[in-house]
Amino acid sequence: MSEAKLAQLQYALAERAAKHLLRQPVTLDNYNGRLITINGQQYLNFSGNDYLGLATAPEVLQALAEGATHYGAGSSGSPLVTGQHKVHQQLCDTLCDWLGVERALLFSSGFAANQAMLLTLADKQDLLLLDKLSHASLIDAALCSKADLKRFAHNDLNSLSSLLKQQTAGALQPMVVTEGVFSMDGDSPDLPALLALCQQYKAPLLLDDAHGLGVLGPEGSGSATAQGIAINDLFCLMANFGKALGIGGAFIAGSKTVIDYLEQFGRHYIYSTGLSPALCAAVLKSIELCRSQNWRREQLQQNISLFRQLAAELPLLVSDTAIQGVVLGDNERALAASKQLKLAGVWLSAIRPPTVPAGSARLRITLSAQHTAQDIRLLVQQLRQIA
Ligand SMILES: Cc1ncc(COP(=O)(O)O)c(C=O)c1O
């Protein structure tokens, strides 16, 4: 019996390898933001999500160490048992102050937060409407939830509008889910127009702002405020601490009612060890720096503009964020390009299906405030040779 199961797994692995879709984790010898060392070889890193360079900020590292000394390395339990320390509450209060929301709840990862958000908030009387390019954590959550699921064309308000219209006579309550910045394309929906459409159909709008928080809006408060809408107009906001804030973990923020409900019924929150308190201390410091050091966001914006200007003749996706894509189409071609860049000292992973749609394998460039103009020139020079 187990042989048959193992043979099935081996077949799937072999099939994936034959399609050039096998992925392998990379073990870093050293990380300092813009530079990484792998197998003794140093590379310019254009693949991370440490957009503001906070993962290695000395103040953040010190806060992590002091947090561990003060509160312990781990939280030792579910937040509803003994896993919530003062520093967790401080972090929730800080998020409320920063984002202007009533309550926030912490999760061990963005994946878990998205699972909790859709599995807990959507029920059998609901219809989840997700953008076609939604992150895997949202798609899986929607598929596992008791709600029905439909997908609208990427960032396409007409497509969403027709799904909402179809629903007016139906018995299901629509809930709309999108992202502030799409993780593989780097583009954004028109949030004010999307919100107006949701309001017209009385549909709650749920936003994953993993790639907008810290980078966009006043004090880095994210995509909603960057586009002039209040976070309170959303049904809830999910974002993580592992991207621009440089650490790990995540939160869902919103009204008291929504967060009270998640606290009582969110299984990913209730039945999971709370975030490490040391990590919370580091996130608090990271948020403080993110809010006060606008120069990090300005530097990132300058780097994005420089890249777009120098790479104007390359087949770039339309994006004015830190995520820039060069679509090559074929999986093998994307892998070969990534290999060639590595030989030139540039670390840039090839992104292939199922992370992106079939036939749209690409080089996904992520820019950081830490990159220098010279780094970006070198990157573009290499990309030109490939394209
Ligand atoms: C849009 C989006 N949502 C959610 C996640 C999951 O977050 P985490 O890495 O904290 O689990 C990611 C990260 O890959 C993401 O890009």
UniProtKB/TrEMBL annotation:
Subunit structure: Homodimer.
Naturally occurring in which organism (per UniProt): Arsukibacterium tuosuense
Obligatory cofactor(s): pyridoxal 5'-phosphate
Biological role: Catalyzes the decarboxylative condensation of pimeloyl-[acyl-carrier protein] and L-alanine to produce 8-amino-7-oxononanoate (AON), [acyl-carrier protein], and carbon dioxide.
Protein name: 8-amino-7-oxononanoate synthase
Domain Aminotransferase class I/classII large: 43-382
UniProt-listed InterPro entries: Aminotransferase_I/II_large, AON_synthase_class-II, AONS_Archaea/Proteobacteria, AONS_Proteobacteria, PyrdxlP-dep_Trfase, PyrdxlP-dep_Trfase_major, PyrdxlP-dep_Trfase_small
Keyword Phosphoprotein attributed: no
Gene3D superfamilies documented for this protein: Aspartate Aminotransferase, domain 1 (3.90.1150.10), Type I PLP-dependent aspartate aminotransferase-like (Major domain) (3.40.640.10)
Record-level Gene Ontology MF annotations: 8-amino-7-oxononanoate synthase activity; pyridoxal phosphate binding
